[in-house]
């Protein structure tokens, strides 16, 4: 809906966006935002699991990511040409609510304004339950059980309180996405998977041998790519950290 509305406005030659060809000042924060976009990977298990014949799963995943990239590009480019960049909200849906001549239907304005609430309302409980269970696993004691207070109150609180505090104290989504994407996202998307691959291979090598051939092996199976991912992760952290320090210094 947002893409079509923006395209209609651009097609009428009423677009107010006149972006520069490139702005290198935004590159450091771009790393964090790009890492944060790993959210699209949440759909992969539900996409791959039902497939019985996984011989072409690589092609299917490539098509899936291509579609995701296409929607990202459409949404981003229509936004920067439709709206004035100085007035563009970090939460893109808010551009279609008050004081906007792109959409004149009140119901659709409210719908787009509340759209993030709908998505968060469905995703947050699932993510919160997963995080709570991860906390339990992290502090698990062999043969022991948690007291009722710890199990039912402490673990849910340490899961729910931090995001609520952040929501009350900041509405700067650009910085928030950049920071959470860079630090938490880098660990989830780059560091942990790379370490899992490296140590899994070392664990399996004595059992299956070095000459074993996996018909589902990745084209990036060389150990070089594990190191490359770790170097890339460190680079992302350095760029974002430098950007945060330099931005605060200018203020």
TrEMBL record:
The chain crosses the membrane at residues 60-87, 107-131, 152-170, 176-199, 220-246. Keywords: Glycoprotein, Membrane, Transmembrane, Transmembrane helix. It holds the Pfam family Aa_trans. Its main location: membrane. It is a multi-pass membrane protein. It is found in: Membrane. This is Transmembrane protein 104. It comes from Dissostichus eleginoides (Patagonian toothfish).
